[in-house]
Amino acid sequence: MHHAHIDKFAYQDSPVHRLDSRVKLVVVLVFTAVVVSLPRTSLSILACYAVGPFAILVWAGIPLRFTFKQILLVSPFVLVLALSCPLYDRTPAAVAFGPFSWRLTLGWMRCFAILAKFIVTMLALIALVSTTRFSDLLAGLQKLGLPRVLVIQLGFLYRYIFVLIDRAQHILRARAGRKLRNLGLKAELKIAGAMLGSLFIRSIDTAEHIDTAMQARGFDGKWRTLAKLRIRTADCVFASAAAAFIFTLYFFLKPLLQ
Amino acid sequence: MTKAIEIENFSYAYPDGTIALSDVNLGVEHGEKIALIGPNGAGKSTLLLVMAGFVRGTGKVKIDGLEVNRANLRSIRACLGACLENPEDQLFMPTLFDDVAFGPLNMGLSHEEISKRVADALQTVGLPGMGDKAPHHLSAGQKRAAAIATVLSMDPKIITLDEPDGSLDPRNRNNLVRLLKRLSQTLVIATCNMNFAAALADRAVLVNKGRVVAEGDAGKIMRDLQLMVEHGLEVPGIHFS
Questions:
Q1: Are residues A89 and A113 in the same domain?
Q2: Residues in A touching B75 (Cβ below 8 Å)
Q3: Fold annotation for B5-88+156-230
Q4: What beta strand segments (E) does chain B contain?
């Protein structure tokens, strides 16, 4: 397999990597909720919030190039939403930043706020995924009370998404190897349908084999795991520091910076 | 003493009516290493599924003296470890540790015992300390070894392996031969690679068109050029060290 993995830095070792997945999950959830709840006029406070996940990424040794690449990869979805704002809200607004001031529309302010929130929350999410192994994330989610069936589904999704991507790449390669001319839209759609069908049938086949493998090892419908998570002093220190950072900005600096 | 595997007059047809196995009789002693040889579509994989209780037909199947039926399935699956053809299907958990621990967890063993069994199984297959690895980060040879570890951790008396040498390069195939030779369990290996079968098996069972065509000493069966060619196979030429 040659495709990049979203969690390829999760297997490194750093103080952040060693933190309990539950603590990191809760911190990222709270951080995201607070950032999303900020009003659209809080661009400067959003910049302050970005410092947190940015510092964690640097501390954990996650390359910034990788981080920004991941953000760029997801950005088209948010860009469509953000860039549509100036089109429907043209109410004039004045913006001041220190000695500078300029005029904008509320639509553009909403656009910048969406983009800034997206970047800040993505930084936090990448910091979480890049410093936590997926298996630990799943164990953390289960411990935090996510329904077991969802945890199992997520586990299978993570395990087999790469197999599926690989198979799709093989099929595309096989098609490219024999496709020597443009066949026209109708024929291309027919081929694409057949390829999707083949992928679907192979997926069902794989699911049946996995079921066989699970039953062969005594699976009776109950999902059993070895609990390996433990909250330590470092986790408590991290949680306290994160809470102090998030809520100090929210309650004390936000009124000053607005 | 009971045999490891006893199959008497077993027949099975697929839902579309195609005969998969017809009047199969087979006995395997404890500690034996047998090769199920035959061309593609001969019924080897189906026969392995019969042993693990996944395919029910007419006739009698006993594993370590226990008749294969719904009531005995749990005991049978603790006694017989089935390794599927594709390791991707066998390794379904996010980490290697979780995968190797999956069987022992379902057996209701203590956490200490499970950790010990996982470490021992990974050591045996040559992947010590790799429990934290995600299966998709392993090479083909490592995946194959890991798939074997997933059944070894259940400490079964019998292990069935479906085309275990598939897509392995010669070095990895040699490693696999050495690993399987070291195992004390009863091994049933389905393969169409005669060199691989010759390197491992004491006894060979030639299956074709759902029937057991010949069985006996592995060397004798596989050196019978006429028999092998007649059933779309070849005589082994290269022997593994």
A1: yes
A2: none
A3: Rossmann fold (3.40.50)
A4: 5-13, 19-28, 33-37, 58-63, 66-67, 80-83, 158-162, 186-191, 203-208, 211-217
Q: Do B89 and A206 touch (CB under 8 A)?
A: yes
Alpha carbon dihedral A70, A76, A81, A82, in 10-degree steps, equals 70
Residue A199, domain member (yes or no): yes
Which residues of B fall within a CB distance of 8 Å from A225?
Answer: 98, 105
Structure confidence by residue, pLDDT tens digits, B151-184:
999 999 999 999 998 878 888 888 899 999 999 9
Place of tokens 């001319």: A181
ipTM for the predicted complex comes to 0.79
Contact A217 B103 (CB under 8 A): yes
Among the partner residues A162, A210, A226, nearest to B105 by beta-carbon distance: A226
Phi first, then psi, for residue A150 (nearest 5°) are -70, -40
What pTM, to 2 d.p., does this model score? 0.76
β B80-83/B158-162 pair status: parallel
**Which pLDDT value is given to residue B240?**
46
Of B84, B134, B137, the CB nearest to A213: B84
